[in-house]
Amino acid sequence: MRVLQLSLADGDGGAHIAARRLHLALLAAGVESEMLVDRKGSDAPGVKGIKSEFMRGLASCRPSVDNMLTRLCCHGFKGGAFFSNLAPDFMRRRLKGRRFDLIHLHWVGGGFLKPSTLPALDVPVVWTMHDMWPFTGGCLYSGECRNYEGVCGRCPFCHSNSPKDMASRNQRRKCLSYRKATIHFVAPSNWMATCASNAAVLAGARVSVVRNCVDTTVFAPRDKAMARSVLALPPERRILLFGAVGGLEDSRKGGDLLKTALKKLRELTGPEESPLLLVFGGEKLGMANFEGMDICHVGKIHDEITLSLLYSAADAFAAPSRADNLPNTVIEALACGVSTVAFNIGGMPDIIEGSGGVLVKAFDTDAFADALKATLANASSARELNRALALSRYSMGKVAEAHVKLYSERLATS
């Protein structure tokens, strides 16, 4: 079986990392998998970037062109996580002469793949929905907006009052393209599957729930004292870990909610017993909002061994997201035996239910603080349980097996 994975990149973002991990898991399972990307950042086998310097330059311009076109059509649009994919993608040119049994799409925003290209893919297609973009008018997470369940328009992300704005046009383009292509959609979480089943553009489409994977040989429990020694962290202090690509400034990841919860936790424990907040990802700019709190920011981590040491050094992981699908960080923490405190939103229940972690009523920061206090006080009690759940749900072998089964079913019905 020869499978082509299509993704904008192979790292520097949760969806890209999940796609690369699946690619490697399939290779280990004996599948002939190749991964085609615009932005190649790893030395993983079988990952192909753009060879031509000129074409790399064009590819790097696509997100800016896409942003500019959206601004021209929606004067209120200020930029952000909204993609129309209007610029030429040159995908048919890149695929010319390549022979695969199946194409697996991952995150293809940022101008990587136009919806209108989908009908031209002459092999069966599987598409993992790493966020909501495949079925919205352009946003990655819709927030309170449910227009995608009917007709997009008057888009809050575009700050538009027009019923025929860019979001409306994008939704129509997707609808027309999907009708001409046969795509099997994959949701990493039950929440994403429910959202997809309610989406107007996916009416009648097949949606399966198949989890993302993590390398459980890398992300594994390590001796806490050793991890703290290597990372030069205090040996006796309670440590709370938080991580996101955008760091504490990413509103969707809930940095501001974490700040409020930590203030409450400080009141509950007193300054002497309050934890050290260990942060990876993002820039140090967001640290100013946490003035008066004990924080250690280690920046962006590109080495998974170092990242696994951070998890092993921590007593708990905080995931105060406002919206999330199946975040890699929470799976990684689970594999390292660390319990997570999160709001009961999105795909968080899929990972946390049955583990030593705690799900809190959405955006109740007082309850979040209470859960942090209890989890930090019992840091080692669920270590073995968390590890066992990660091995049973998210190991590369199990997730590869589930995908091979899906691929075989898709090929049998094509």
Describe this structure in words.
By secondary structure, the chain is of the alpha/beta class. It has two domains: about 1-215 and about 395-410, 3-Layer(aba) Sandwich (Rossmann fold), CATH 3.40.50; about 225-395, 3-Layer(aba) Sandwich (Rossmann fold). Helix content is about 35%, strand content about 15%. The chain has 13 helices and 13 strands. A seven-stranded parallel beta sheet has the order 3-2-1-4-5-6-7. β1 (about 1-5), α1 and β2 form a beta-alpha-beta unit. α6 (about 225-230) packs across α8 (about 305-315), α9 (about 330-335) crosses α12 (about 385-395) and α12 (about 385-395) packs parallel to α13.
Quick summary:
The chain is of the alpha/beta class. It has helices at residues 14-28, 53-73, 91-95, 166-180, 190-197, 224-230, 255-269, 304-313, 328-335, 348-352, 365-377, 383-394, 396-412; strands at residues 2-6, 32-36, 47-48, 102-105, 125-128, 183-187, 206-209, 239-243, 276-280, 295-297, 316-319, 340-343, 358-360.
Features:
414 residues; alpha/beta; Rossmann fold; 2 domains; six-stranded parallel beta sheet; 13 helices
- Fourth CATH level, the homologous superfamily of the largest domain: Glycogen Phosphorylase B
Tell me, briefly, the overall form: globular
Order of helices and strands: EHEEHHEEHEHEHEHEEHEHEHEHHH
The amount of beta strand, in percent, is: 5-15%
Largest sheet, strands/sense/barrel: 7 strands, parallel
Poorly predicted tracts of residues: none
Mean pLDDT: 93
When the domains are counted, the total is: 2
Could you please say which CATH topology of the largest domain applies here? Rossmann fold
